[in-house]
Fold these 3 entries.
Entry 1:
Amino acid sequence: MAQMNSTNSTGQAMMRMTIGLGVLVVLTALLYFAAPDSFYPWAKAIHILAVISWMAGMLYLPRLLVYHADAEKGSVQSETFKVMERRLLRGIINPAMIVTWVFGLWLAWKGFGFQGDWLHAKIGAVLLLSAMHGYLSGAVRKFAEDRNEKPARHWRMVNEIPTLLMIAIVILVVVKPF
């Protein structure tokens, strides 16, 4: 019964997320077509909000995996972590990454014509962050199947990677060192 409630609750969360993304797409399209000249700052604001959401999840998920690695398989605590990890990944991290990429690529094209060594380096760092996202997605799958073989220490080290990439990305965007 608890599994059924969890599945139903997850389905409702996914439905809310889908509706939220749909509303974002419709409002963005309306803004773009109604006032194309003032769309750029709105796109930048949406991009920044998506990046903050993506990074929040990318910083929190490895921390959950640290605690999950120490939980006994099949325990109530382990099952709770599975739900938390799945919801964080599917409800926040995945949609935020998609919105970040869509608006980021549009901004890179519209604002910079994909020109600039700093922009190329930034896109490279975001690709690395996306690879980290994929690695964490696979880890969530393994934890859900009770197949994690990595110790908590591994996840503590992994927890630092998104932070380092975030620092590099912010420096590249703000300072534009080259």
Entry 2:
Amino acid sequence: MAMRWFVVQAFSGFEGTVKRSMEERIERAGLGEKFGDILVPTEEVVEIRNGQKRRSERKFFPGYVLVRMEMDDETWHLVKDVPKVLGFIGGTADRPAPISDKEADAILQRVQDGVEKPRPKVLFDVGEVVRVTDGPFNDFNGVVEEVNFDKNRLLVAVQIFGRSTPVELEFSQVEKA
């Protein structure tokens, strides 16, 4: 039987605990060959606080743990009996359905991208008012005209001498007004 990815719902905030408990139970039961990776999908985020860049992890599917496993009665019961686990997502209560390989690959890619290129913790929208906190336009307010997430940059319309002037700034140079 081939291993597939399954999504397990856990109490929000206890994903790491569920992962550790699951790993311990698999070890105790001697079922290591029926389980692959157990993953709490996170991405690294960067925020600027008091001029300092801080990196932290953010769960992008809070309350869920991904488990690569062979599904049979023994493995199903092992996972279901872990404290703080609510059950499997997809399929029926007694016959969970795995997620597709395409969905699993997309999640794994997002985790990998988060490691290689951390996302900003604060996200900006077009039309939103922001305050510039760094650079030559420090303390100016402006309106976001464009957002480029790939480069972590914004095009902000700033009022200079009564005229709207577009200025390109990094996410780290602005904060929500």
Entry 3:
Amino acid sequence: MESCTSFSSCGHSPEHFGGFYLSTPKSGSTGTVDLDAGVAEELTAHLGEVGPVEFDLPDITTGERLTRPVAVLFTSARGKLLTDTYWSELWADWREATGWPKEGTFHSLRHFFATTLMSNGVEPQEVQKALRHANLRITLETYVHWLPKKDRPRGLVGNLLRQAGRQADGRRLEPSTGQDRI
């Protein structure tokens, strides 16, 4: 039995694969993300109650269509694959229980995650890594407005110029070229 790894993701297409299948991750994005201790506890509890459940799934990661056993971690409490219809029902219940607006989609969780990190001072490069954005520009263009607002120093350039002027007072400044000025 194999597990879904960072090199494959589970998709759902009743038309093409009769339901769930394994494919390469969207945009080829793979990696490891640190798991929050609270999330780890919930995952451990879920695995203790349901455990990974083995399913035979079509696998298109190699270019040819194979079927192989796969241990799926996220299933229903009864160990069934989460269809899009069932997932929508679960999501609606969770969204209502947390007071999220009805317009909130599952993808909204990604934005919640990113904005929570950004608004709590996590470095943008770390947020980029966690979201697996191809470059920092994508992260900043999407989430820069969530960076904590700090008191921006005012008059910084003017203060530096005044300080330089005070140091020059009383001294005759010579031209740096050594030539007389006209």
